[in-house]
């Protein structure tokens, strides 16, 4: 059964939501039958590729809050992150456009490394304070998860990866995604926000039971005889 997750790597609740979802999935007895696909979503496509302000100043501007109010809000989010084992440092976060990071995710998905790339980018942005619009930095992050350095350049030069990102965003809007994280279970149930693990587990159980009813597990009665395995062993 497929679960699609719309996310922006600059969204603090997306990383927290990822951890809570992973906690739920680890407790789910049919986790090996779950396929996860990360979907791109940009919260602010107008952000520049070169940082012009801190995360704090950015939030003051877009939310119309006082610096003290923003500090209180980010302190609360930092504690929420800490509660799920994440270390946020808002003072180091570099506010840049996430377009190239999403292109990298789209490329990583073609190499079956979408989840690993998402995780690496989250950690780079929220904990390490890395610039996720900088091509050498993104290349290094891709290499960290095993992507080939030369092949990585295609992620930033081939327009199809930007098109795939745009398609994800449009697809999300078409099914009602207005904020992230947004989890879609078998295209039947949606969970919005960084919910507690139990909420994810309940939706997992419900959606999987319905999916399994339509996709019954095949169990064969086996009669064993002489055969050859894929590794060349015959007996």
Structural commentary:
This protein is α+β, with helices and mostly antiparallel strands. The chain has a single domain, classed as Glutaredoxin (3-Layer(aba) Sandwich). Helices cover 51% and strands 9% of the residues. It has nine helices and four strands. The protein has helices at 12-26, 55-63, 67-83, 99-110, 114-126, 135-144, 149-157, 159-174, 197-214; strands spanning 2-7, 35-40, 182-185, 189-192. Strands 2-1-3-4 form a four-stranded mixed beta sheet, sandwiched between helices. It starts with a strand and ends in a 21-residue tail after the last helix.
Q: Work out the number of β strands.
A: 4
* Unreliable stretches covering 5 or more consecutive residues: none
Secondary structure category: alpha+beta
What is the CATH fold-level name?
Glutaredoxin
- Encode the helix/strand succession as letters: EHEHHHHHHHEEH
Most strands sheet: 4 strands, mixed
Main attributes of the structure:
alpha+beta; 235 residues
Describe, in short, the structure shown.
The chain has nine helices and four strands; from the N terminus they run E-H-E-H-H-H-H-H-H-H-E-E-H. It has 235 residues and is α+β, with helices and mostly antiparallel strands.
Write the layout of secondary structure elements.
Blueprint: E1 2-7, H1 12-26, E2 35-40, H2 55-63, H3 67-83, H4 99-110, H5 114-126, H6 135-144, H7 149-157, H8 159-174, E3 182-185, E4 189-192, H9 197-214
Parallel strand pairs: 1-2
Antiparallel strand pairs: 1-3, 3-4
């Amino acid at each position: 059964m497929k679960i699609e997750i719309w996310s922006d790597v600059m969204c603090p609740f997306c990383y927290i939501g990822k951890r809570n979802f992973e906690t739920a999935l680890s407790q789910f007895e049919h986790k090996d039958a779950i396929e996860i696909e990360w979907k791109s979503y940009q919260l602010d496509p107008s952000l520049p590729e070169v940082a012009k302000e801190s995360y704090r100043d950015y939030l003051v501007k877009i939310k119309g809050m006082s610096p003290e109010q923003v500090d209180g809000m980010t302190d609360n989010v930092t504690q929420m992150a800490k509660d799920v084992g994440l270390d946020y440092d808002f003072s180091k976060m570099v506010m840049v456009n996430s377009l190239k990071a999403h292109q990298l995710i789209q490329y990583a998905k073609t190499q079956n490394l979408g989840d690993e790339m998402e995780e690496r980018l989250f950690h780079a942005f929220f904990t390490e304070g890395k610039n996720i619009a900088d091509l050498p930095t993104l290349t290094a992050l891709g290499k960290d998860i095993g992507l080939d350095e030369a092949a990585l350049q295609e992620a930033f030069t081939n327009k199809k990866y930007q098109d795939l990102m745009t398609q994800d965003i449009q697809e999300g809007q078409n099914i009602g995604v207005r904020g992230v994280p947004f989890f879609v279970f078998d295209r039947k149930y949606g969970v919005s926000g960084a919910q507690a693990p139990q909420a994810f587990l309940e939706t997992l159980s419900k959606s999987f039971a319905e999916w399994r009813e339509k996709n019954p597990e095949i169990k064969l009665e086996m009669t064993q005889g002489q055969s050859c395995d894929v590794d060349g062993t015959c007996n």
